[in-house]
Design brief:
The chain has about 90 residues and is mostly beta strands. The protein has one helix and seven strands. It has one helix spanning about 30-35; strands at about 1-5, 10-15, 25-30, 40-45, 55-60, 65-70, 75-80. Strands 1-2-7-4-5 form a five-stranded antiparallel sheet, with no helix packed on it. A two-stranded antiparallel sheet has the order 3-6.
Length: about 90
């Protein structure tokens, strides 16, 4: 995973897997270190043709879980806004 942080605004997360099977990935995100409020935080995967469908993953208590397809991944915008806007 790689992150690009705009402290107090939003963070772009790049999550990738080279596994040959589909996975469920769980991670802990330190929202306070990113300057993002704990309540209402979510990770938005914007739709990108040929890359990923639109999806939203809630972040509850700093924990986030998502499916990751074999040899796949996600580009996620983590923010306190449920629509991912900055």
């Amino acid at each position: 995973m790689t992150s690009y942080v705009r402290h107090g605004n939003a963070t772009l997360l790049a999550v990738a897997s080279w596994a040959t099977v589909n996975l469920t990935v769980s991670m802990h995100v330190d929202l306070s270190a990113l300057g993002i409020g704990v309540s209402g935080a979510s990770a938005l995967a914007p739709a990108m043709d040929g890359v990923q469908p639109h999806a939203t993953f809630p972040v509850v208590g700093g924990k986030m879980t998502m499916p990751v397809e074999a040899n796949g991944g996600w580009l996620l915008v983590l923010s306190a806004n449920t629509d991912g806007s900055q």
